[in-house]
Amino acid sequence: MHRALAGLVLLLAGCARNVRPPEQAEATQPAPPPVEPEQPKYEHIFLMPPERALAEAAKLLKNEGWVLQPMEDPRLLLTEWRAAQIGTKSWGYQSDGDHTRYLVSSESLSERECIIRIFRMKRVAFSNDVEIKPEASGAIHNRFVGMKRFEDEFRARGAPVELAQRERDTAAWVELDGATQGTRDLELERQLTLILESRPSLETLTGSLKLSRDDSFARDPTFYLRRWKEPVQEPCERKVPGFQPLLKAGLTVLIGEQLGTREVPASVGDLMCEASQAGHAVTLALTVPDKEQARIDAYLASAGKPADQDALLGGHFWRKVQQDGRGSRAIMDLLDRARALKAQGRAISVVAMDTDMSQGKARDAHMAGKVLKPRAARPQDVFLVLAGNAHTRLGDADWNDDFVPLSRHVVEKHPDVKVLEVGYAQGRRWGCDVELNGDITCNVMGITPGPVVEIRPQTPVGIRMLPKVHSEGFHGFLDVGALTVSLPAIALRGHEPEAPAAEPAKPQAPTPAASGAATTPRSAP
Question: pTM of this prediction?
Answer without folding.
Answer: 0.74
